[in-house]
Design a protein that fits this description.
Blueprint lengths: L4 E4 L5 H12 L3 E6 L5 H10 L8 E5 L6 H4 L26
Parallel strand pairs: 1-2, 2-3
Amino acid sequence: MQKQLVVVTGGSGFIAIHIIRQLLQQGYAVRTTVRSLAKAPVIKEMLTNGGITDLSALEIVVADLAHDEHWSKRWPEPLMRSTSLPQPQSSTSKTKLK
């Protein structure tokens, strides 16, 4: 049986690490975004220090989520998002992020 995928943005953040740890402990597959893959070893070390011994259900991907096109390419629906980043703006949106 395939594990349900949950996406957590901002994977190197304090809150995201705790969310990712809990999701992995509960048997979910986790895809998390980072701005640079240079943060991947730090994320894995923090999870290992937090008691996670199997990182096979963790996927770390690079995404600059300040750009709309990076949102849809990184995960299918439904998903869970960290509130640490702004939501994407569609091309028809009149409100711009500052």
